[in-house]
Structure formats: structure tokens, C-alpha cells
Write a structure and sequence with these properties.
The chain is of the alpha+beta class and 289 residues long. The protein folds into two domains: 129 residues, Probable inorganic polyphosphate/atp-NAD kinase, domain 1 (Rossmann fold); 138 residues, Probable inorganic polyphosphate/atp-NAD kinase, domain 2 (Tumour Suppressor Smad4, Sandwich). 18% of the residues lie in helices and 41% in strands. The chain has five helices and 18 strands. The radius of gyration is 21 Å and the shape is elongated.
Length: 289
Amino acid sequence: MGTTRNVRTVSVLYKSGHDQARGLAWTVADWLVARGLTVLIRENALEAVTVVAPAGAMVTAPPGLTVVLGGDGTMLAAARQSAVDQVPLFGINLGRVGFMTAAGLDDWPERLAEILDDGFTVARRILLDVAVIRNAATVFTTTAVNDAVVSRGAMARLASFEVSLGDADICTLRADGVVVSTPTGSTAYCVSAGGPLIHPDLDVLCVVPICPFLSDFTPVVVPSRATVRLALCAPETSMYLTCDGQELFPLDDCDLVTVRRAEQTFQLARGKGNGYFEKLRLKGFINRP
């Protein structure tokens, strides 16, 4: 994992419909232009127009870095796109937690200057390929950064799952649901449901039951190359698949949900002061010594 230097073009992606993010996008763009860089500015929305700064500049190189303005939700959307174009992300937090971001409103010029002047390492993070199979046909597919969650709807009724990993049957589980998380997503629903924090450099997935009933099934960390299968086996249970808290798909009684590591990854630009445990302390996940 080498150090990236000599970035000539920077993309700035800002949260859709957010006035503060829009204003900061132009502030960041002006700051970057003053350093001699070409900037591509775009709102995080379908069919949004890309604006080039300075006005009339010729884009002579593809973006070497994407600056994302928003919270973790905006970073999740940007991460899925990063998996396609393989441009490292640098997030400026405008949300609440901002665990995936690298800077805040008070220190972004300092943090951004550090990685542009001194270079940055590229941290690759795994993604999930998620599918729903119904009557032997695939009826839904998506890619997730944090997690895939199968959970019940409005009815307070336990669901039943046949849980398997690869070719091995694990158990029949009665619970409110199941979370399958990447290491990146371990600080999200995974830890809230009682799962562990997982260092993002590990190549694993975590399977976490949500409020299990009369079950010894505890959160388990598994190799990422093995497919996790969740087969619904309780009739008349209203269930949903939610991915990254952003995509919702209603499930039928006998659907099979499969979750596996995606072939592609997304990238984060990591400077000197972005240590994992430092961020855990900063965000309140662990106490300072």
C-alpha cells in the first residue's frame, strides 16, 4: 500500500439538498483551485450536472481524489461509486457520527493539506454482494458497504431462519432479524445489535442475530469468501431486507437471502492522523486510556 502523490484533479461530491454542504463545496473548490488544482463539483443526486472549476478549465487528468461533503449516508453512496471508478475518498463530516469521514468542519483545511502535500495511503475496504432468490429466480441484487439486514416489519412476531455458511448448515434461528456486516459496518447496526468491533483491514464478515429467542447463537465472525445464506422458513411473517439503511426490499415467506463479499472494493484516502483506534476513541466507541 504505497503513498499517492501529485494529484492534479479533485472531485468534490456534496450531499443532495443540503445548503451547508453546497456552500462548503464551493469553499473547498476555491481552496483547491488556489493550490493549482482542477476541481469537478457535483451534487450527490441522479443526473446532477458536474461543474468544473476554475471556470473554463481543461480537465487534463482523471480525479485522483474525491472529497465527500456530508455524513456517513453520503459516504456510503460515494463508496459504492468509488467501487466503480476506483477513486479514493476523503470525507468531511457534516452529519452526526461521521465514522467513515476523515475531517470535520473545523480541521478540513489542515487535514486536506496534509494528504495533498505529504501524500496519502489508499485503504481498500470490502463490499457485499446481496441477492434475494425466490422460486429459484434472483429477484433482487445490490451492493452494500456496511451491512445487509433481514428484519421483521410492523408485526411483533419472531422470524425463523435457516442459517448456513458456504456448504455448512449452522442452525435454525428464531429472532427479530439478522445482520450481516462488513468490518466497515461493524460500527453501525452490528455493534448496536451486540456484535463486535472489527478492524477494517480484516477480510471477514460478521453475522449477528437481532434479539434471538431461546438460542445459543452468538455473533460470529466468518471468512468473507464464504457465502452467508438466510432462508426464511416462518409463514405469514412480514420481513424486509435493508442494505446500508438506504435500500429496502420486501421479502416473501420462503425467500433465500445470500450475502457474499463483492469482487470490487472501495477506497479511502488515509493520512497520518487517521488511526483506527484514535477514531474509535474520538467517536466514543472506546474510552480514552
